[in-house]
Amino acid sequence: MLNSNTTNSEDLIRIYQILDANLDRAREGLRVLEDWARFGLGKKKYVERIKDFRQILGKNHLEVYKQSRNHIEDKCKGLTHQEQIKRKTSEQIISSNSARVQEALRVIEEFSRPHNHELSKIASEIRYEIYAIEIDLLSLSKLNKSEEILKENDLYVITDQKENLLGIIEDILIAGVKIIQYRFKTRSDKDHLQEAIQIKNLCKRYNSLLIINDRVDIALASNADGIHLGQDDLDLKTARKLLGFSKIIGISANNEIDISNALKDGCNYIGIGPVFETQTKKDKKPLGMEKIKTLTKDLNIPWFAIGGVKTNNISYLKSYGFKKVALVSQLMNSEDPKEEAIMILKKLSHEN
Q1: Other C-beta atoms within 10 Å of 66: how many?
Q2: Domains of the chain from N-terminus onward
Q3: Separation in Å, CA 102 to CA 34, 55, 61, 296
Q4: Is the pTM of this model over 0.85?
Q5: Nearest to 34 by CA among 105, 93, 120
Q6: Coil, helix or strand for 254?
């Protein structure tokens, strides 16, 4: 409800102009966020919330504010800033439009307080909601990009401890590998974290994912893209609470129950094996082709065949329809990791 105590009518018209401009500005920014939530992320919950904010602000965009629009000439109309043309990524667009909404709502909150307390309160409440929504949309956008890399790439490389590990990793990244899992066992946590940060920097340079094996703390501290968990590691729900929704979580599974639980708890990909006998998992019996076909026939998320996979059995795996593989020893022990990785990628991309 309007409560006009302003004695200077010209001042009041200027305030109405400010409110009119910022209500438009806030709703425009909200529409950008809403469309990204809808078309970019497919997240109905956020679409509904943001749409509701737009409708509330529209309902409170009073006719008296709109009528003030052309009453006083705006000499600053059309001003732009060079930063606007630098927005290239969805994350930059989300952040800039969230800021646009937040700033506009703050202006509305301040200038409506003396004469329209209800609008001031609404602006304040929505502004605080947008702070949280911005973080969620950015997290989901990052997760979306990571999931795309998982879907589009068929070679997943797991590291082993090597003196020249960083050199090996850079070689295979240059070759085109986009998914690296950092697995470590014997050195100190301090050494592992330092190496994880170096690997993360390499992966970022080549637009590739870094997944940390087992350790949520190392994944968080190194800003890795995700974590891979075995059945005896931290449970997925707890890991998700710690990591948030910007990180991917992969699960090792070799039976119907573990796969079903991983899907129910929201894992992003599954490693299934061992396919063949392997020195890495000496105590695990190979599952066999038919068993893996049965386990994976209804999977609608990426899954990687793991365990004893080498260049010479990739064609055999592909003949069963297994298109994605995880490798450990072959690339880690190769005399020429780059050329070896190129050859494996060609084998995976070649149609049988």
Answers
A1: 14
A2: 9-145 (1.20.1260), 153-349 (3.20.20.70)
A3: 15, 16, 17, 46
A4: no
A5: 93
A6: coil
